[in-house]
Amino acid sequence: MPTNVYVANDLSDGLSASTQISPALSSEYWSAPGGSISLPTGGGQTELYWIDRNEGITDHDTWTVITTVAVGGSSMLLQVQLVGTFASSDIAVQIVVDGSGTGWQANNTQLKFVASNGLTYNVTASYVSDGTYDDVVFAVSQLQDAILPQIDHVVVLMMENRSLDNLLGWIYPGAAAPAQVLPAGSSPSYDGLESTFFNTDPSVNNGQPVYVSNGTTDWLEGSSTISEWFVPSPDPGEEFDHVTVQISNDMGGFLTDYVTQQPGTPAEQIMQCYSVAQLPIISTLATSFAVSDAWFCSVPSQTWPNRGFVQTGSSDAHINNDDYLPWDINTVFDVFGGNNLSWMVYNDGTLQSLTKTMFLTKYLGNETNFAAISDFQATCAQPASAPANQKLPAFSFVEPNFGVLGNDESYHPPHDVRPGEQFLATIYTAIQQSPYRDNILFIVLFDEHGGTYDHVEPPLGAQPPEPGPVSSSENFTFDRFGVRVPAIIISSWVTPGTVFRSNTSVPLDHTSVLATLRDWQGLSDAFASKLPSPRIAAAPNLAFVLTETTAQVWPTLPTPPATFAVIPEPDDSEPLNSIQQSVLIGASGIAAGRPLTAAETHAARARLQTHGDGRAFLMALQPHLPLR
Predict the structure, then answer these.
(1) What InterPro entries would the database entry show (predicted)?
(2) Which of 118, 267, 381, 438 is the most exposed place for a label (fewest CB within 10 A)?
(3) Residue 570 has what DSSP assignment?
């Protein structure tokens, strides 16, 4: 029985193809096309050849069929390899253009390339079921209006629960100005903190203003000390109702919300924002590449909804983390996988990622697309000449350890910020030292502000998403953005010292990541079908931030101070936050082989109050969890 191999030409011009096989194979076992074959336009499939899968292909021997097609002045090789087995043969495909290729693939694959004529093309190879053996269909198309042709890999690292002012409010002090602002003609100053900013509350400081501070103060809480690295502690309110109070009165409600939620703690610490000296890693990256002073989280609320927006363009009507039950809606990972584009989720720690937790119904059995940070580092270290399947995927989503086991690396208050700095340095260094870093776009984001102070009011007029344009629990139609969060664009093609804002009338938010991925890979039709959220459709992409035509130097990060050397892990009495609870509940679902029911989830939440509870919970699950 044969496999048929086809090419679909979606270009405006006709192509021609010539095919050779090595070693030679009798025409009894394949169609042996002679000369060139015309590939007409219009997207219809043209048969290149057929090849027998179980006769003529001897055990353990390998045949390689190479079809050569000239596209845009570049040489494109469409390759099929058969390896004989006892009963038939195994098949793999590979696409190579001007010496760079996908590597041999037993699954669908694709390659985007800039041809000699300067235009961007996309080639896919798909296995199509047809009887006993799959057929192979190659398809070539031009990416119209393609953005970021110099980028082959996008990496997004999403941290937790800090506002822009809280972490990066002081990076341009006084009269210091960025080297470049985008768009050109926008304010030449960075919209950071000024010492005159304040909040008031009648119960704090005798009702007098509590001014924002540039942060290295420890705070006394009874007989205990809240270290400068843990501010604010306890954790501020982050649910929708808390955020509504915080942003009221022209961003004047942070102090009131904190003292109301956490009576007895020094409420003034909510106005303490980190200094550059405290955070040498993220501060260096913000001033060495491009930082936005007008990037807003997508929802004025919590982690799950905001991470939902960066991965789906929606929160499926959820406004808070609420029930921890998995969502079953389309994601950007589904779009990439459905279009032969590679993707991975990498996370630190021994447990599953938060992404898998949130979409456990979809990804419970998927171990192919979820891996450890050590795998990310090894993949970054591959040589530039390595085939595509040995390098980073087209899209990588990276997550820190959320502190269920070990230190929280996400910056989430009230945890120590230093492990977050160390983890950010680990990911940056892996990319900075990569032989192919010039082809990587690295985006550092924070999902939401987490109740920490910021002075800029979130804009109104956000496009309600689909699905779930109306909150299922609050009187809210998702027509307002959330509070500003840090957003740093790192690339060889970014002008050092850039500060950027939206280049359209629509503010930047997490769906700008999706708009960038869509336009970068020419996925407008796929997004319209699978991710039709109006929020994505309205969002500006990020191509305008990459302004350089010559690759820039990536700086070596400063050596952290000695205070970073020894960082104790949380003790058993420390409360678990909602993310830590949800990851533990997700781990229970993985151990059970199915997501927990609502009743089981509710019972687990009641048990999981402290880190000691979490460790005991995991001890019982450990024999049933996959090892990493």
Answers:
(1) Alkaline_phosphatase_core_sf, Phosphoesterase
(2) 118
(3) P
Measure the CA–CA gap between 351 and 489, rounded to whole angstroms: 28
Q: What sign does the CA torsion over 145, 147, 149, 152 have?
A: negative
Map residue 8 onto helix, strand or coil.
Answer: strand
CATH class (in words) of the domain with range 2-142: mainly beta
* Spatial contact of 254 and 238, defined as CB atoms under 8 Å apart: no
User: Which pLDDT score, from 0 to 100, does residue 56 have?
Assistant: 84
If one counts every other C-beta atom within 10 angstroms of the C-beta of residue 517, the result is 25
Asked if pLDDT for residue 628 goes beyond 70, the answer is: no
Q: What mean pLDDT is reported for the chain?
A: 95
| Strand-pair partners of 539 | none
CA distance 296 to 479: 13
Backbone angles phi, psi at 517, to 5 degrees: -60, -40
Domain boundaries, the chain: 2-142, 153-161+276-560
Q: How far apart are CA 395 and CA 385, in angstroms?
A: 19
What is the Cβ-side half-sphere exposure of residue 116, based on CA atoms within 13 angstroms? 10
pLDDT confidence tier of residue 627, bands split at 50, 70 and 90: low
Both tokens of 474, joined, read 């609050």
The radius of gyration of the chain from alpha carbons, rounded to an integer in Å, stands at 26
Provide the residue type at 554 as one letter.
W
Of 280, 250, 273, 255, nearest to 195 by C-alpha is 273
pLDDT 10s digits, 530-573? 999 999 999 999 999 999 999 999 999 999 888 888 788 889 99
Tens-place pLDDT, residues 248-282: 999 999 999 999 999 989 999 999 999 999 999 99
Choose which CATH entry (3.40.50.2300, 3.40.720.10, 1.10.10.60, 3.40.50.300) describes domain 153-161+276-560.
3.40.720.10
